[in-house]
Design a protein that fits this description.
α1 links the parallel β1 and β2. It is built from three helices and six strands. It starts with about 35 loop residues before the first strand and ends with a strand. α1 packs antiparallel against α2. Helix content is about 20%, strand content about 25%. The protein is an alpha/beta fold. The C terminus is likely disordered. The protein has a single domain, classed as von Willebrand factor, type A domain (Rossmann fold).
Length: about 190
């Protein structure tokens, strides 16, 4: 593990809080890991407008930067309905640059209502449609404020999506994110 210290001469002397990003890099193993098929399911509804969407874009750029050439990524955005913005693609340098420029910076605009269920179902369909599955790990990363609107009663809401054996990791954006909207199928990681 490698830690880099940063200091700030203007830091207050009294107790305070700072947001930090800690990156742990395992350099002890020389063995290659299995390839990852990751589907990013991104909330671009009206409630994400402003700082929430800006932070979502930063988070996605970080995710993209950490994927290796053996990994594949697909991006699904959702608001009132879901849209597959790209198929699973290998994360070469050119693919990463293209995804950041064309999709993350170019296509993610906030509008509409929040249909988490359709976003998840579309993400699961991306994984179901894969032709090459052997020796690959599949996961979904859901990034949302969880403000599902209109709130649908069971069995129609996002909490009743049958995810099977797919790992779903949920990142909640904003201090007002609704953690209950997604806790039925994953662990919420609040990003404020």
């Amino acid at each position: 593990m490698r830690l880099v210290a940063h200091s700030n001469d203007k830091a207050p002397l009294e107790e305070n809080t700072h947001e930090v990003l800690l990156e742990v890099i395992d350099t002890s193993s020389t063995r290659e890991r299995s390839g990852l098929d990751l589907v990013a399911v991104l909330d671009v509804s009206g409630s994400m407008e402003g700082p929430k969407l800006d932070k979502l874009k930063v988070a996605m750029k970080f995710v993209i930067s950490k994927l290796g050439t053996m990994d594949r990524l697909s991006i699904v955005s959702f608001s009132s309905k879901a849209e597959r913005l790209c198929e699973l693609r290998s994360m070469t340098g050119a693919s990463k640059d293209e995804l950041i420029k064309d999709i993350i910076e170019g296509k993610l605009k906030a509008s509409g209502t929040t249909n988490i269920r359709h976003g998840l179902e579309t993400g699961l369909q991306v994984l179901a449609d894969r032709r090459h599955r052997s020796c690959r790990v599949s996961s979904i990363v859901l990034m949302s404020d969880g403000k599902e609107y209109p709130k649908l009663p069971p069995p129609h809401g996002a909490s009743n999506v049958a995810i099977g054996d797919v790992a779903v990791y949920t990142f909640g954006f904003g201090e007002d994110h609704d953690a209950e909207a997604c806790t039925c199928f994953s662990t919420i990681i609040p990003l404020q």
